[in-house]
From TrEMBL:
<dbReference type="InterPro" id="IPR018873">
    <property type="entry name" value="KilA-N_DNA-bd_domain"/>
</dbReference>
<protein>
    <submittedName>
        <fullName>ORF6N domain-containing protein</fullName>
    </submittedName>
</protein>
<feature type="domain" description="KilA-N DNA-binding">
    <location>
        <begin position="12"/>
        <end position="88"/>
    </location>
</feature>
<dbReference type="Pfam" id="PF10543">
    <property type="entry name" value="ORF6N"/>
</dbReference>
Length: 252
């Protein structure tokens, strides 16, 4: 692997998708910072960095193919990502390191173009250019696919979290006596706008007795505790569909 010397530190030249990049370990080394400093700062400001523009993430296998040992994966910073990461460093060394990295590492002087001298060299040159283009396209497609996969996993996680939250909310509604399975008279009156009177519970109680059902008692802000009557009683006695009134039942 080719190297370049920056402020007395010999750094390997790492390239990805046709551009030079640096690892977080390289940043710590050349800026003479304790190991892990760049990683900490990157994680702290991670939302500000744009993947595939400011940085790339490679797994340990891909890192080995690049000649880098990274058991926990590898973060590669582009020139823009590097400058964003070190913008808070203002000591004399930091200024000089940034200048040299930009001039000598990220933007090296273009090598003199060697004009092919014969047909064989021209064909070899054309083949090399085609190989480089194909490699860049493969790396770009891989980065896009990886980003899409990460996005899909995040979306699935968000949907699962929302579903769990909905189930929990439904369960709480049931426990408070205003659900699709059973509800208190106060809850139904509030939701439907109807009034059942002081003796409105008696037909519901009669239905429960006839059907061998013991209605549960739930916390009540007005009375401390109230009977939560089953959906069957509400539907048969008063024609109230708790499923429509409070929302359909969420499967467990």
């Amino acid at each position: 692997m080719n190297t370049v010397t920056i402020c007395g530190h010999q750094l390997p030249i790492v390239e990805y998708q046709g551009q030079r990049v640096v690892t977080l370990a390289m940043v710590d080394e050349v800026h003479e910072r304790p190991e892990g400093t760049a990683r900490r700062n990157f994680n702290e400001h991670r939302p500000r960095f744009i993947e595939a523009e400011d940085f790339f993430v490679r797994n340990s296998y891909e890192a080995r193919q690049m000649g880098i040992a990274a058991p926990n994966g590898l973060t590669l910073l582009t020139e823009s990502g590097y400058l964003m990461l070190v913008k808070s460093l203002s000591d004399d060394l930091a200024w000089e390191v940034q200048r040299q990295l930009v001039r000598s590492y990220f933007r090296p002087a273009a090598p003199a173009f060697a004009v092919p001298q014969n047909l064989s060299e021209a064909l070899r040159f054309a083949a090399d250019l085609e190989d480089q283009k194909n490699q860049a396209l493969l790396e770009r497609d891989h980065a896009i696919a990886t980003k899409a996969l990460i996005g899909g996993k995040r979306e699935a996680t968000a949907m699962a979290t929302a579903s769990a939250a909905t189930k929990k909310a439904r369960q709480l509604e049931h426990e408070l006596g205003r659900g699709a399975r059973h509800a208190t008279i106060i809850a139904v009156e509030k939701a439907s706008g109807r009034r059942f009177g002081a003796q409105g519970f008696r037909p519901l109680k009669k239905w429960c007795k006839a059907h061998g059902v013991t209605p549960p008692k739930v916390p009540c802000p007005r009375y401390g505790e109230a009977v939560s009557w089953p959906a069957g009683a509400w539907l048969e006695v008063y024609g109230v569909d708790l499923g429509e009134l409070f929302g359909a039942e969420v499967p467990a």
